[in-house]
Amino acid sequence: MSNQRDMSTRMGQGHETGHLLIVDDNKVNRLLLGRGLEQQGHSVDFAENGVLALDKLAQERFDLILLDIEMPELDGYQVLERIIQDTDLRDIPVIMTTATEELESVVRCIELGAEDYLTKPVNAVLLRARINASLEKKRLRDQQRELIKKFATEEVAEQMMTDGFELGGRMVEATVMFSDIRGFTSICEAQSPADIIELLNTYYTLMFEAITDHGGIVNQIIGDGLMSLFGAPVSRPGHPQLAVKAALEMIEMIELFNVDQESAGLMPIKIGIGIATGSVIAGFTGTLRRATYTCVGDAVNQASRLEGLTKDVGQPILINETTRQALGDDIPVEDQGIVPIRGKKEAVRVYSVPVANN
Amino acid sequence: MSEAVIDQTTYDELKDLVGEEFIGELVETFFEEAPGLLKAMRQALVDVDPETFRRSAHSLKSNSATFGATHLAALARELEVRSRDSDLEQAEPKLDELEAEYRRAAEALKAMI
Q1: DSSP state string for A76-111
Q2: Which of A188, A282, B83, B90 has the lowest tally of Cβ within 10 angstroms?
Q3: pTM exceeds 0.90, yes or no
Q4: What pLDDT digit, counting tens, does each position of A236-287 carry?
Q5: What is the CATH number assigned to the segment(s) A19-151?
Q6: ipTM of the complex
Q7: A165-352 CATH
Q8: In A, which residues are within 8 Å of B58 by CB distance?
Q9: Could you tell me which CATH number the domain at B8-112 has?
């Protein structure tokens, strides 16, 4: 059968073209849809049931999927459900192709997350209009996502894309970490501006890596200080352990960094880390024009105070009682006694996490 | 015959859309697929398998409508709806009717391409 791949170079008059997947168990339908789409300048691929469709989706990148509801093996709903649950696939627009009397099913699919629908036999004008609209929307969404990613972390961007943007927060259980370079002001005075910027960039790179490797996100950068969250905005079991392990890795990274610094005749640095687990209010704050994802609450205050306290105690990592309880016996800690903390009426018990070289 | 086996307008629209050569290809594909669907429906009656019966009727309906085989599509649709309610008791004479109508539609289509 000559499938006439006459996509030519005709990219259509001002419409987007893409790589499309047609999923239909009916061969006549597949051929017909494929023909119509190729005539409009798209490249198409076919799958004759849901299982094959998911195989194809795992192998290749598609810009849009035309999905039949009624199919053997895995039907349209099941395929749609898997697509929506898959973070790699859920951004691909799905247009359901259905018989006219299946409108109830269509409603279900739209509710599940399908972009649009077309009734069979498919009308050529509608086909063109809906495909173009979907591809255009996808392009705008991709652009928006790229933009958001530049000023927010990937996870916050994801949350914004799925839940929409809304000021306001929710109460979550999370672990907050503050870290800071000790005596940074005197370091600044002793080194050239270029050296300082380079030092900061290396420092950020190392710290970000240790934090994100443990599922944390860096929420704010204030000078040489970092505020990081574990367990928010995406809830993650074991966030206290992850935060402490990230802290240990951060210290280790700094030790390695210092070896380089010293051999280059530059000053070594020291960091202090405060970690506190507890309830925080997390969400977008600001105005609709300029907003930031942030966390407020007791655990935030405690983490910040504990970080400040590392100087006085002479220990690089300090954690609060709730973090310690969550650690169990996995990571050894040392009781540093009850310490008054600014902003809290009662003094709190503080623990340090011993570091190998300290 | 009060009604044409193939609705000329639907067929012509399809031809305009996909081109003379390709519509021949589509019709040929339909001829390859349809007998298998009818056979599957017949077998599904023997096996008391309303799901296969329904799915085959659904496919046949969809394709018939594409080519403008209006009456064939209506018959297939009726059988599809019936099997959805698992009511296959009286389906056999309807299936005979469907097969006869398919033969008429196929002949008409053959003459058109």
Answers
A1: HHHHHHHHHH-TTTTTS-EEEEEEGGGHHHHHHHHH
A2: B90
A3: no
A4: 889 999 999 999 999 999 999 999 888 888 888 899 999 999 988 877 666 6
A5: 3.40.50.2300
A6: 0.88
A7: 3.30.70.1230
A8: 70, 99
A9: 1.20.120.160
